[in-house]
């Protein structure tokens, strides 16, 4: 895989060095405010608190997907594809924020979620999925599509 988790940015940027407390996350309902923006909401890259909330949901959903599929690379690839479609706005907004040189602002928006982000990142990195599937080309493409800016 050509990229390390976007989680590395989150872990390095939040500055929280306290041990993360495990959190349980139930899947959000379809109309969750973190998933569906109000009709009058501006672009996600200009609403950093909303971007931070969506990024947290992304990481928690990836962690849950990896926990569910274990070492099944085909299932993991399918889940990553589904998540990429659901979180394309997060990937694009994150890329825009970074391109605009607003990483500090994003770090500040992520800071209130640092314990939950750390827990999700640890769950992703600690899952059996990455070591088993990282050399699988389809998995690597799906993983990169989820954590990289769109072309």
Could you characterize what this model shows?
This protein has 151 residues and is mainly alpha-helical. It has one domain (7-11, 46-147). It has helices at 7-14, 48-69, 73-86, 88-99, 103-110, 114-126, 129-133, 137-147. Helix 2 runs antiparallel to helix 3 (73-86) and helix 2 (48-69) crosses helix 5 (103-110). The radius of gyration is 15 Å and the shape is globular. The relative contact order is 0.23.
Secondary-structure blueprint of this entry?
Blueprint lengths: L6 H8 L33 H22 L3 H14 L1 H12 L3 H8 L3 H13 L2 H5 L3 H11 L4
Helix pairs in contact: 1-6, 2-3, 2-5, 2-6, 3-8
**Structural class category:** mainly alpha
Termini Cα gap: 18 Å
Mean pLDDT: 81
The outline comes out as globular
Any idea how many domains? 1
Percent in helix? 55-70%
Biggest sheet character: none
Low-pLDDT runs of 5+ residues are: 1-35
Radius of gyration: 15 Å
Characterize the quaternary organization of these chains.
Answer: single chain
The H/E string reads HHHHHHHH
Annotation, overall tally of beta strands: 0
| β-sheet strand percentage | under 5%
Tally of alpha and pi helices: 8
Give a nutshell description of this structure.
With 151 residues, the protein is mainly alpha-helical.
Key words describing this protein structure:
single chain; 151 residues; mainly alpha
